[in-house]
UniProtKB/TrEMBL annotation:
InterPro entries: DUF6593
Domain of life: Eukaryota
The protein, known as: DUF6593 domain-containing protein
Domain DUF6593: 64-181
């Protein structure tokens, strides 16, 4: 797997929970919140104004989400909506299996830049999830802190996105959230 020599954007996943966390760039360039509506199967992604560790905003359910992940009542895949572009796509069409026999933890999606990206779980040592291009360039990887490892003042959970792909950071987080949901519910 090839990596870009460019800089990496590191977003700290504050909780490591798939439906209730903040992704804060360590250099204060991007703040996103992933939050599930209470008693519902809808998960929203919001663009925040501040780092969650500095200004813990209340859950922004009155704000306009930038992405809506609407799972079915049995937690199976539903629809993904990009609110600014006013596009709604079935998740099974947005994140397609890479092969008939490849399992559900290897899926690809086409981003707004027209390129195809693939998520895989556990294929690279030290990376829980890896996202690559069709040419096998590393786009992003997500890592949870090992339970036995201590972290001081940070969660230790990170999403690293290589600079050329930062313009699709929201799509990377949305697709990662769906992939983690697929793994959690064995879909």
């Amino acid at each position: 797997m090839q990596t870009s020599a460019e800089s990496v954007y590191t977003l700290e996943d504050r909780t490591g929970h798939n439906t209730c966390s903040d992704f804060d760039d360590i250099y204060d360039r991007l703040y996103l919140r992933v939050a599930r509506l209470p008693q519902r199967t809808t998960t929203m992604i919001y663009q925040m104004r501040h780092r969650s560790s500095r200004h813990r905003d209340s859950m922004p359910f009155s704000a306009e989400p930038i992405v809506i992940l609407d799972f079915a009542s049995d937690e199976s895949l539903g629809n993904i909506s990009f609110t600014k572009a006013q596009i709604t796509i079935p998740m099974s069409r947005y994140l397609r299996k890479t092969s008939l026999f490849g399992g559900s933890l290897s899926r690809k999606f086409t981003a707004s830049d027209g390129r195809e990206y693939t998520w895989n779980r556990g294929t690279v040592q030290g990376q829980e999830w890896s996202c690559t291009t069709a040419e096998n360039y590393l786009v992003a990887h997500y890592d949870l802190k090992p339970p036995h490892q201590r972290a001081y003042g940070v969660s230790g959970n990170t999403l690293k996105i290589y600079q050329p792909f930062f313009p699709i950071a929201v799509e990377i987080i949305a697709s990662l959230t769906i992939m983690r949901h697929i793994a959690q519910f064995n879909l």
